[in-house]
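wait is this the right file?? whatever heres the structure
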């Protein structure tokens, strides 16, 4: 409130300085000190100032009110006498200025930047593929069977649009994996060698909203395709990410799992930052689950017009909000806070 009061005073002073007739001065009086003037309105916020600070702020407000009244009446007198007022006489440029309020980037934006930098430094290209997507790219081309539960409107948002004959219904993409085949098709179009190092980072949507899920969230998807790519490369990239993003002391492990579009598939864990992998209350056995990965399924390569006999690749993907929480050790009672636009919360980052 103090800052606002000082801004109001500065505004009033500079308007009074520039005014060159009585009518203008009367208007300034109304605009600042009138019943719905700026200062009068600001004074209504006094009740929100903590009790112990109120007398001090109240005093400042009074001083400012008197100052504005005085400068208006001084200026009126001068105008009546036909004198000009030099601006420099009243403006004390040696006084400390008022610090402008500074914003900061949203914590998810900060995480996106940091994650992109890690992967760009080892040759990945950051791309974005559509968030409003066809079923074919999100599921069919990724080897999902027709009756897979993810394709149900219980889990995925469907767009009210006539389904395409070729690509099926239109949806909001539920994962960044839908960029895999798009990227392959784009890359093979005019190149003989489909050498891909993709980082697709985008918004995803699922029918979920609870303390640890939001309907809109961000994921990033890595895809590397070339001749001779193997699980060792995947493990190397994961380890590089874990060490760069979470810190040198952390390590990763892969566990067999099942995804439709990778074979073999893995779940990736990182060692717990609290107990360093020994096992504690948070992680139980020393590891925290990070996301999914695997070697690109031959059917997916075929959908992307890439010869699976000649080329191999790996893919991985997981949530930005998830790694952000794990990195910052943020123990948020409700993940939805991130998108609540509460300044008090966001200001901390
Ligand atoms: N798309 C998966 C999900 O949203 C995550 C994932 C799993 C991505 C395995 C991958 C992968 O690239 O190989 O749960």
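ok assuming it is, sequence goes like this
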């Amino acid at each position: 409130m103090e800052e606002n009061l000082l801004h109001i005073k500065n505004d009033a002073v500079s308007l009074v300085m520039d005014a060159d007739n009585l009518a203008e001065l009367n208007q300034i009086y109304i605009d600042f000190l009138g019943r719905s003037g700026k200062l009068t309105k600001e004074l209504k916020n006094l009740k929100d100032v903590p009790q112990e600070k109120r007398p001090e702020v109240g005093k400042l407000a009074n001083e400012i009110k008197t100052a504005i009244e005085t400068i208006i009446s001084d200026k009126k007198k001068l105008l009546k006498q036909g004198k000009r007022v030099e601006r420099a006489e009243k403006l004390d440029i040696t006084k400390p200025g008022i610090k402008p309020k500074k914003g900061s980037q949203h914590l998810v934006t900060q995480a996106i930047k940091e994650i992109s930098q890690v992967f760009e430094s080892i040759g990945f290209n950051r791309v974005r593929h559509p968030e409003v997507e066809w079923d074919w790219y999100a599921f069919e081309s990724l080897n999902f069977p027709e009756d897979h539960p993810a394709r149900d409107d219980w889990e995925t948002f469907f767009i009210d649009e006539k389904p395409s004959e070729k690509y099926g219904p239109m949806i909001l993409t539920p994962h960044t994996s839908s960029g895999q085949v798009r990227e392959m098709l784009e890359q093979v179009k005019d190149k003989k060698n489909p050498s891909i190092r993709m980082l697709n980072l985008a918004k995803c949507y699922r029918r979920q909203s609870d303390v640890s899920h939001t309907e809109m969230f961000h994921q990033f998807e890595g895809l590397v395709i070339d001749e001779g790519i193997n699980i060792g490369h995947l493990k190397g990239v994961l380890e590089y990410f874990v060490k760069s993003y979470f810190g040198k002391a952390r390590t990763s492990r892969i566990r067999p799992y099942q995804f439709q579009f990778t074979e073999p598939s893995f779940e990736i864990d990182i060692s717990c930052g609290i107990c360093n992998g020994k096992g504690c209350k948070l992680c139980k056995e020393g590891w925290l689950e990070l996301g999914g990965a695997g070697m690109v399924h031959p059917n997916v390569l075929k959908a992307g017009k890439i010869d699976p006999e000649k080329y191999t690749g790996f893919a991985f993907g997981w949530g930005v909000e998830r790694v952000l929480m794990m990195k910052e050790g943020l123990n948020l009672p409700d993940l939805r806070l991130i998108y609540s636009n509460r300044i008090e919360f966001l200001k901390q980052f």
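Residues 175, 177, 221, 259, 262, 265, 291-294, 315-317 surround 3,4-dihydroxyphenylalanine (CB under 6 Å). so i think its the right one actually
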